[in-house]
Predict the 3D structure of the following.
Amino acid sequence: MRCPRILVTLAWLLAAATVTAAQSRGEVKIGVILPLSGAVAPTGGELRRGLDFATAEINANGGIRSLGGARLTLVYGDSRGMPETGMSEAERLILRENVAALMGAFQSSVTMTSSEVAERYAVPYLVLVSVAPGITQRGFHWTFRATEEANVDTRVQMDYLTWLVKRSGLHPRTVALVSENSEWGETVADLTRKFLPAGYEVVLDERYTPGTSDFNAIAEKLHRTRPDVIFLASYVADGILLTRALAERHVTAMAILTRGAEHGDPAYHAAVGDLGDYQSWMVPFHPAESRRQPWMEPILAEYRRRSGAEMTPYAATAYANLYILSDALERAGSMSHEKIRAALAATKITSGRAMLLPYPSIEFDEHGQNPNTTLPVIQTVRGTDYIVFPRALADISFQPVFPLPGWGEHPATSSLLQPVVNGVTTGGVYALFALGLSLVFGVMRIINFAHGSILMLGMFAAYWMAGLTGAAWWHALAAGALLFIVGYAIQRLFLNSLLAREPQTVEPVSALLVTLGLALVLDNAALLIFGADYVSVPAARRTLHFGSVLLDSRRLAVLCCALALTFGLALLLKRTRVGLAFRAVAQDRDAAALQGINVNHTYALAFGVGAATAGIAAALIAPLYYVHPTVGTMFLIKGYLVVVLGGMASLRGTLAAALVVGVLEAVLGQLVSANVADASVFVLFILVLLVRPSGLAVRRAIRA
Amino acid sequence: MNSRAKTVCVAAALLAAAALPLAVHDAYLLQVATMVLLYAYLATSWNVLGGFAGQLSLGHATFFGTGAYVTALLEIEKGVNPWIGMLLGAAVAALLSVILGFPSFRMRGPYYTLTTIAFAELTRIGVMNTRQVLGVDLRGARGLLIPSLGEAPLHFQSLHKSFYYEIALGLLAVAVLLSTWLRRRRLGHEWAAIHEDEQAAACIGIDVPRAKLMAAAISGAMTAIGGSLYAQLVLYVDPGRVFGLDLSVEIAALALVGGAGTVAGPVAGALLLRPVAEWVQWVSGSNFRGLHLLIYGVALIVVVTRYPLGLVGIRWTLPKWRRPRRQPA
């Protein structure tokens, strides 16, 4: 009986269709589309806080007076950062919630699709933050953007640079661009090239894939090309790793100019401390503006009181935008979309709370774009942010630092060995992660997709312990012990019954699926429990000099641990009774059972040991990366490629393959580009496939 | 239920579903329903390779993205009608899946799965970093914006959601019919044999590589058509999304939870899980981030460990502990 179930589902859909949202009088509904889950959820949360704050203020001050004191109600739609979800959420807000206007959506890709929906239904759409110039160049009638587009960012940045250079009498010539290669980063990099004043030469234009785990190659390249000016465009997670890599390699320049998407996020400063000092960054709003605009102070204080945090640029932008919309509603005196649109188009704001945005005035041209935008450039020096440009907004008492301290001091100590050394240490990270995968595969032939999530749990455990006791070496052991228990339980609860079902000569696909399910559960449960903020684990760091080769002490520790763990596991397999049991069940579990080995217990022990290695790895590499519910995915795929290249069940093979992959990436990253390095591992994997038509020679049993 | 009753039942369900836009004018609901149908269609397409032929692919986003890109690029660059672009996209995807199939089908079981992931990631990185290829403006990571033409059903665009809904429904119906037909053909039996035991299949004279490549080509082409529909529905193609691992995993998970290898399974999986996910999202608002993925994960674990045949394989009877009460000893 299959069809009735389909019918039931359809009936369910129909029933849901009849549910209609009640509409009450005396309120103005405004739909807001934001990424409230997914990778940029923290930013979505910031925007939401700003909007909620403004709503509470407006409603407390009598709502929209021309509508009889109607209260503002914000109805949120979660885009999850996906264009099609943004689209359907726009539809939901317009049709089911009957919103008077829409706002959204941070990511330009989502703004593109959701504002297209608004255009179709003739609903006013006020853009929040998205900077893609194309948004207001599509000839749309209903889309408005009060904030700046990427062109303006770039122009302000170039004016700032020109101003700096003129003041200093220095003559920068060479320029390097490092940007992430999603829609935003690409736009920024192209505009930077386009607006670059004459006389500059671009010596490096590196565009990396967001979520890249290794920025050493880029730092090394910057170190070698020694550009006078560096332009950066990164979101917070990549920005943290990039800033650390630059510091490790002592990369300086006359000026480092960033777009501020990383600096604008409080998580960035928590993670990098003073490493981001002296970079010049830009945000649509900075609390330091209140030093020259005393009227802002009560707003900021009230916000601090309510939310317990400083008003961030995104919160402030959202706050100001809601005031722009409420101003239009006030003048429209109607909930009709046409009247609100007309009022928005006629906007001319030069005072009031919307002026948190540092523009001379807020109005819209025929494209719906505010032509008067600008934004402050900020330089952080020893933990304090100073507005340095445009001069009308700047802290007069502060002179921007140019050239940066250390510029010209560090000689070009570019040993040819440096990329290889970087690669070997990165290989150590991969090895540390992949050992557990290899062990679990070797004993049970399980492809463990949950290994990345187990690593993530270990990193959160390390973060938590570091918060309690400060960084300590025994955290690695504690995390390992904790995850041993988790791993043991996972095998006992979920996987043993599956393995019992399968013939032992087969790699069970069902186990792969269960671990995939586990990964989804663990990652998203972590998102629910720990939230989507990027946090980091502090650790003491020293740079070791070997001739002209630099080595970070923590990376060296990771490498040593990877070596030690490989040989430790090898000893375990060869010399201990447990290891003997591992090898026995791996060879023939039925025969092993006949010898009196408890197969289920042994399997669980093996999975536990695999998870424990992930725990040790987590505690060691957490300070090198950031801690976030999705961090495991960064390692998982690469870890598997490493394991496959190493011959699946061989620990030594895994170690060797990890080092080879690390070096390959570092060298290619050096010689060609980060993306080619990224792709090279996959190409290597496929080449190995082609060269060995029978598939990789897979050992039947675990080997040291 | 005999097969005639079954046919009548399915036809009735189909008619009822086709008539839904008459009753529901809410574009949001139609959009959600369209996405549900699209996922059911994608799961059904995946099922040809992943279910029938038993080759667990976690890289189907490659074909989805190919369909979306070919259709969108041909329309933007050469002004090719997207209806034709859709067919060309399917052809390109079929060709691509055969080309990728040659090396990857040398691998078995989980190795094959890892290989599909590797190819999909390589494609994603490749597309996101390619500005121009052979004079075609690929726009790299910025993706493709398809100009809105308003009401133009001849150009695969409409202002009415029911248009996309009916197309998605039609695609799903065709995919289900095609699946049913294929399964009864010789090819379907060959796939079943390969799924059961590849070596034994080769021994009884089945051309295993050919049968697998056929499955890959059909599955890839069908998935690409889904990609074309997506591109026309959303009018923006984001390479990180359409070539992403998340999409591959979601398609496969829906089919597997419903019951891979059956015709009804993938459809049931998508029709049950997707609405639940949407509903949870809607009810919980944004307070529970990623809750829908958590639900997928739990469903996947429960189904694989308890009901290996998927939802459609569950015998819908009363739990055993209640039976004694009804059957006096």
